[in-house]
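Forum: Protein Structure Q&A
Topic: Joint prediction for protein chains with partners

I've read a bunch of threads here and the consensus seems to be that you should model interacting components together rather than docking separate models afterwards. I'd like to see that in practice. Below is the full input, 885 residues plus whatever partners are listed. Could one of the regulars post the assembled result?
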Amino acid sequence: MRDQLIHNLKVAYARLWVRVKGGNREPEWLIAEMIIPILTLSAYVYLYKMLNAPPEFAGFVIIGGTMIAFWSNVLWNMSAQFYWEKETGNMELYMVAPISRMAILLGMALGGIINTTLRAVAILVAGTWIFQVPFALQEPLTALFMFFLTIIALYALGMLFASLFMLYGREAWHTANLFQEPVHFLSGLYFPAKYLPFIAQLVGSLIPLTFGLDGIRRVIILGEGIADIWINVVVLVLFTLVLLPLSKFALNFMENLGKKEGRLTLRWQ
Amino acid sequence: MAVSTILKTVKQAVWLGWKVETNWADPLIFTIYYLIRPLAGLLIVGFIFLIGSFVTGAFNPEYFAFMFIGNSFFIYVVQIMMTMSMLIHEDRAHYEVLKHIYLSPGSLRWYIFGRALNGVMNASISLVLTLAFGLLIFQGLLGVQISINWLGIDYPLLALSLMLGLSCFIAMGFVLCGINIMTSKVQFMLTEYVSGILYLFGGVVFLPEMLPSWGQAISTALPITYFLRSIRFSILHQASFNPQIDLVYLALTTIATIFIGAAVFRVAEYKARRDGLIDKKEEY
Amino acid sequence: MQHCIETRDLVRIFKGKNETVKALDKVSVTIEEREIFGLLGPNGAGKTTFIKVLTTLLLPTSGEAYVGGFNVVKEPEKVRRITSLVSGGETPGYGILSVKENLWFFSQLYGLPSSTAKEKIKRLMTDLDFKEYANTRMAKLSSGYKQRLNLARGLLSDPKILFLDEPTLGLDVLTAKRLRGYIVDWVKTEAKGTVLLTTHYMAEADEMCDRVAIIDRGRILVCDSPHTLKENLKENQIMKIEVSSVQAEFSFIDKMEGVVGYSQTRNIQTGVTMLKVMVRDELVFSKITSKLEDERLKILSVHNAEPTLEDVYISLVGRGFEEKETEAATHA
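Posted by a regular:
Agreed with the consensus. Here's the joint model:
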């Protein structure tokens, strides 16, 4: 049992290492992933300025833009990852190795978090400096706590998607595309989600990002504390507690289904 | 090269793009790429506008129309850039057909042009759908006043603006194709860079006057600025635009872009042939 | 007695939208330790499906399979600990990482301590003669070196049983020969493991395998050593006839009395078709050559041939492995 655990932790570390090493080997990607989001964010900040909106709205945009990096990572480097692994033939090797599949997913998630945090910090710093975003941060530890809680919930969702997409080829790719702009809208990446129509808020509340983003913004921009955002904390914890075991179940279910139907390592679907 | 060969190549390329990219056979995928995603993008900026106006207590329907039209017609930029920048990678590394196209009697340039035309077609479908659903949501459901007189559109001006603007974007696309022929390192990010720069500096969703002076200088050099002004004038007839001057600037910047696009692509083609890049596969 | 690999009436059915395919049809096979066992058959015969079941990638529809004494359905984790899979024609790994980095990563999937892994990687790269590419990104390697990397990856964990699924697919003659030699050495002198090899190259099976099973349409037709299988054919006569046409139809040969089977290889470049005909009686050959002349086909040469594994296949099925349009020069 102990040996098995150590083995799987090594596997998770190895997969994390691949993600971090590979993700930072091409400096042009690193630069692009920092500069490109700032271009779009700037357009939205200028739009708010044109409307003479209060300066904290610029802060909402910058923080939303920072969190996009994580959402994109969850979609493309977690959810659709098994699709890529199948295409390159790595999936087969993961399946025949004496390892826990969750170890692979954990390594992917941790590697993604490390890579994305580097980029996200760069976006946050650059955006804050360029637009002189006013912060009213009273409880920095609360902000960090909300951030980590949001990340964990997001990547738990990513693990669930990865399991579901394991069997599906191009559908996984298209579904990941579907979850980009619509989720940006529904989770209120660029404005407080409370201003959306009720039905949109209802749908948005199914996404962990909505609660995480709201909590982080309220702490950093509006100066609120843990007592004000406890609902967000509870919801994110619940998301994590539900999504993690669900992703394990989905992973086992999809693997068995794939082995029954012969689609586990089938390419060009 | 005979005109008939050119027309045939272009026609085949348009057909191929329709088959491979348009996903018309799968309604769900078609809806995702040509309606849901662009519409979500429009909803984002629309709600930024509405919420920003709400908190300040001042809603300007002219500005809303300005943003609405600008964001919608930007679909052309995104679609054309995406089609043309991914084209080389897909045909060379994924489908492995680029060398066969290159070696065929029709020219690679006209093939790429045909694929770009398919991109224009797809963008047009997307535009119509996005405008329709956008109006339904904002005007119909949310009761937002959008000052667009659909019956008073200056169609000749609209057509001329589209013709010039799309030619310009296709020429930009040739620059992207050229770069992607020479290196595969930047293919995915080129589209994002170009779209991002044009979105920020092109007066798409906000007045370029909001930018710092150096930003405004960039804006005056970009063809998209005049493209969107001409489009807006033809649809909105807003007094702040001068259609003749904008058209002239659009024509001049378009011509310049076409020269640049042709030159870059020519150099790229030569280099590709010299260095054996036509059928070079690079993987990640 | 426990066999290294054992299958009992293994069946695997694939149900598609419009058709049902029986990829494995009551396959019963036993493989002993330190044996190089070949599964030979044409494309679509069921070879890869068989390997996928044994490596726990696929569940059988019915029947049983044991690898290293473990049931592949009920004890897959135990099977995975003692096996390794190398598939030809594929290049798994991460192109952006170097050869060494890729191998280290895969070593961790099998729980090797890093220091041990590094030693093994160094040794394998030396043995497989691609040490100089250790720091080269995988994406930059040619297919031959990628396959060496693939094989090295498969051997890192010192598996008790190595599954090789068409390991030399798409490789040039020299590289293929080198890899085959290495595998044989590995079994006989090095790790003393067992190998199950699938291939559609007769020469490869002939050269490497202690025993060969020929599979066609999911069924094992025969299973014995290559030597014995060929010896059993001595009662038949085999003739090679070169004809100067690549367009002509030769299916009439099949219908002639006394013909056990034939195969044809068309060489588009030279415009010559090589017919290999197996007959029960020598006299049938003269009937065949007469018929060819009646069809106004120029016969360039006629000579006897020693039986090969393909001839064994022809004798069982009546046709060659596949219509080949150029010479299979890589595996002469």
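Residues 230-261 of chain A form the longest helix (32 residues).
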